[in-house]
C-alpha cells in the first residue's frame, strides 16, 4: 500500500486509536481497583494483574485498536484518493474532448483525439471527424477528375475544329496544331515533324512547324528515320516521356536566357501502324498522366487527318490529271474527225499522246481502283487493284457480271438513280462510295463514275476510278462516335458572340425542359436569374475576350426550374482570330449541390449541438461534484454489503457460482469446491466451461445457453442436469440461474443442489 494513501492522515488516526486504547485500559484498571479495594498505583496495577491474568491480554488493547484504526484509515484514504483520481481523470478527458470539438468547429478536421475504450461520445465525434475528412477527400478527387475530363473534352473539341478548318494547308495546319497544343497543355516549346517518304531511298522527318514562348519560330530541320529521339520514337511507334533531358539536346530560350526543360514528351502520329510524323513538346513542368493521354488522343486525330489530307491531295492530283488527259484526248479526236486529211501528219503526235495515255493508264492501274462498265451496268474490265480490294482471284470472276453484284442491297435505291443518270449521259458522280467484297465486307472508297462518250456524243461506257478509304472511314466513324459519346454524357450549348443560343444537344434541352426551337429564341442571359445577371455579364465579357471560364453556374429553365452546372465557357475563333462562337460544355451537378447545401445545414446543426454539448458539460461538471460525495458514501456501503453477501453465500450448503456476461467465474463458494472437487483458486478468473465436458451443452439447451456467452440464458427455472467432478464421477444436480444487472454489467448466479442419494 506504500504510496497509495495519505501517510500523515493514517499516522494521525493510528496514534489517536493507540491513545484511546491506553485510556480504555486505564479506565478498566481504575474500576477494577475500586471494585477490589486496591489502590490505583503502580503496585496496585501489578496486584490486579496477578489476581486477574486477563489483564495481561488487555494490556495489548492499545496496540490492537491502533492496528484496527491503521487498517481502517488506510482503506478510507485509498478510497478517497481513488475517487479524486477518477474525478480528475474524467475532467481531463472532458477538457480534451471539448478542445477537440472546438478544433472541428473551426474547420480543423485533421485534429487528433485518442478516445478510450469506454469513451462512447469521443468515439462518435472521432467517427464524425473521419467521415468529414473522407467526404472532403472524395469531393476533391471527384472535382479533380471532372476538371480533367472537361479539360480533355474541351481540348478534343478545340483540336477537332482546327483539324476540320485548315486541312487543306499542311504548313498552316502544322503551326496551328503545335502552337495551340503548347498553349493548351501549358508547355513551353513544341515541334511538329512530318515524314517525307516520296523517295523510298531517303525517308526522313521534316520539322514543319515549331513554337515557343508565345512566338512563331521558323526553322528548317531534318531528322533521318531511326536517328535521335524523334527518329527512335517513330521507329518504336511508342510514346516517349523523358524527365532527364541530356544537356545540349534542347534549350528553351526566353528573354531571361537558356535552360534545359524538365520534361520532354514525344508522341508518334500513327494510323494502322503507319507513322506520319512525331509531336515533340517540352516543358519546365513534369507532364501529368491525363496530359499525356490527351496529347496521345490528339495525335491519333492529327494522324488520321494528315493521312486523309495526303490521300485527298493525291486523289485530287490524279483526278485532275485524268480529266486533263481525257479533255486532251477528246480534243484530239475532234481534230482528227475534222482534219482527216492531216491524219498522216499527226500520226506521230498521236503516237506520243497514246504513249502518254498508256503511261497514265498504267499509273492509274497501279494507284487507283479502276473498272469499266457498259450503260447496262455489265462489267467490261477490272484492273488488279479492283480484284484484290474486292477479294476476287481473276477477271473471269467479275467480267460480264452486273454492277449490283458489288453494291449492298441497302444502297441500291439511291445508286440506281445515279446509274440511270450516268447511262443517259448525265453529270458524273464523285464522292464516298461503299462496295461489298466477295466475303461480304464493306469497302469504302472515294470514287468517281465518269461517262466515256463515242464519236457521236453518245455514252459508250462508264469509267469507275476510286481510292480505298476503308480504314480512314472507320477512324472517322470512331471519331464521330467519340463526339457523340461526349454529347450523350455532357451538356453542350453553342452561343453566338452576342449570347444567342445557336445549337444545343439533348442533355441541355432536358436540363432546361425546352425544345430546340424554344431554346434558339433564348440568350445566355435568359438562362440565369436576375441576381446572377451581373455575374454572367462579367463571365461573358471575359470569354469573348479570350479568357475561358471554368466553374459552377446556376441556370433557370422552363417554369423557373433551377439547375446547377459545372462546366466551361470557351470561345472558338475563326481564321481571322475573331470570336465565331462560344461553346459551353458542362455536367449537371444539381444533386451534388443540393447535398452540399444539406451538408452545410448539417454543419450548422453540428455547431448548435456543440453549444448544447458545452452547456451540458457545465451541468455535468456540477452534477459530477455533487455525485462525488455521494459516491464516497455509496462506496463504503457497497463494500460492506459485498463482504456481508460473500460471507453469507460462503455459508450456504448448496454450491454457488457467480459469472459475468462473458462467462468468467467471479465467486465460487466452499460447497462448490466440495461438489466439483476443485480449488477455488484454480477456478476464479477462468471461464465456466472448464467445469464441464466439451460436449456438455449439445443435448441440454439450458446448459448450452449457460455455457455460451452469446446465447440468452434461461433464468428463474430450476433444471436437473448432470455434472462431472474432477475425479470423473457423474452427479445429478438441480440448478437454478438468476440474473443481476448493474448498468452495462450483468452477473449470473448459479445455485447448484446435489440430489444424489447415498444408500450406504
Overview of the structural elements:
The chain is α+β, with helices and mostly antiparallel strands and 760 residues long. Among the domains are: 7-99, no CATH class; 490-588, PAS domain (Beta-Lactamase); 651-754, PAS domain (Beta-Lactamase, 2-Layer Sandwich). 49% of the residues lie in helices and 22% in strands. Strands 1, 2, 3, 4, 5, 8 and 9 form a seven-stranded antiparallel beta sheet that branches. A five-stranded antiparallel beta sheet has the order 11-10-14-13-12, with helices on both faces. It is elongated, with a radius of gyration of 51 Å. The protein starts with 6 loop residues before the first helix and ends in a 6-residue tail after the last strand. The model is unreliable at 213-220 (pLDDT under 50).
Q: Can you tell me the CATH superfamily of the domain at 651-754? A: PAS domain
Oligomer: single chain
Q: Note the beta-strand portion.
A: 15-25%
Which fold name is given in CATH as the topology of the domain at 651-754?
Beta-Lactamase
Assigned CATH architecture of the domain at 651-754: 2-Layer Sandwich
User: Portion of residues in helices?
Assistant: 40-55%
Terminal CA distance = 53 Å
